Amino acid sequence: MPTVKVIGAGLAGSEAAWQLAQRGVQVELIEMKPHKMSPAHHSEDFAELVCSNSLRGDRLENAVGLLKEELRRLGSLILSCAEATRVEAGGCLAVDRQGFARMVTEKIRSHPNITVTAKEVTEMPEGPVIIATGPLTSDALSDAIGAYFGADYLHFFDAAAPLVTAESIDMELAWWQSRYDRGTPDYINCAMDKEQYEAFVRELIAAEEAEVHGFEDQNVFEGCMPVEVMARRGIDTLRYGPLKPVGLKDPKTGREPYAVVQLRQDNAAKSVYNLVGFQTHLKFGEQKRVFSMIPALRNAEFVRYGVMHRNTFLQSPRLLDRFYADRRNPLVAFAGQMTGVEGYVESAASGFLAAVAMAAKVQGKPVPEFPRTTAIGALGLYISDESIEHFQPMNVNFSIIQPLEKRIRKKAEKNLAIAQRSLEVIDELVAAGV
Fold this sequence. Notes:
This protein is 31% helix and 15% strand. It has 12 helices and 16 strands. The two termini are 19 Å apart. The chain folds into 2 domains: 4-157 and 310-431, FAD/NAD(P)-binding domain (3-Layer(bba) Sandwich), CATH 3.50.50.60; 163-304, Beta Barrel (Elongation Factor Tu (Ef-tu), domain 3), CATH 2.40.30. The radius of gyration is 23 Å and the shape is elongated. Strand 12 (259-265) and strand 13 form a beta hairpin.
């Protein structure tokens, strides 16, 4: 049985190495620290949390809480170390960052099936391999991955609009229609009258912005101009831009609205919608406050806020399968933020699934099935969904998990029912020896 290389010892790589080793696979974990340090890292330990000690919500009514519970039951290294180094943080799982990283490192280094090599990988390794080098992948390895996949392997984005769940849109105040009724009615239209529109523009202009990385307003390309910058150019700029009502008719009045925000389907399940033309770098809380002024979005659930920064990640739906493996070569896999999952817990989950699948492949066993009813499976299916036209990184959320067959009106009760269904599947997988 071949040794599996894991490149990178962040949360995804550490989880992947551990899961492979626990399944009897010999692992060479290659990490460039301390041989070479990235600007964001300060410690020689693995699984370094560089921006927050919080692994976010811990309740099952929260999608990341469900994901954590799935990982706990599946024997996650990251979750066991997080629990052991937990600090008080209300309803969140927060950890002592140094203690957490130290514990992960000690467990990895003491595992008999793991050999740790400190060096920078500058060429694309042959399989079996899991590459989990994150958003700070070195230039040399990034170039090597680019040569491996060919042109446009990395997706660069400067601007991404917010996403909301379909069920949180007030369809009593919105309607389906394509402009001029061309083709099928592909857009949800959210009307505003003159008073609502002008109040919205005033608050949009006054809203607090986040720090922008990579460019300033005067250098923003016209094609990805922040909606708040457009608003500053004049009260009617948005009405002649992304909020133009031309070719649309409000069925309640039979007339063209004063302004219209259009929402476009963002996934095949039609559970998530994109605010068309709403690229923004407002702070997240300000986005929630101001965009909820749109009448049909007054109770909107945002599953991703708009961002404007330069980031790199794989064009995963084109390149990877649901187990984070190269569609052309199942013994070459990726994990972590470079695959388009957002967040520490999601990165660990991707490392878990990539490793479980890789272990099965090198041992000649069937790859375990993690269905869309589970958060782990839903994440893998999201990053490999070829129907997504404009792929963007995303945190786990209930909208990508298979909905219930029965309708439950209260959101918390519905989410808890989804979580309970998921954990039943996870328990079956654990009982089967996954």
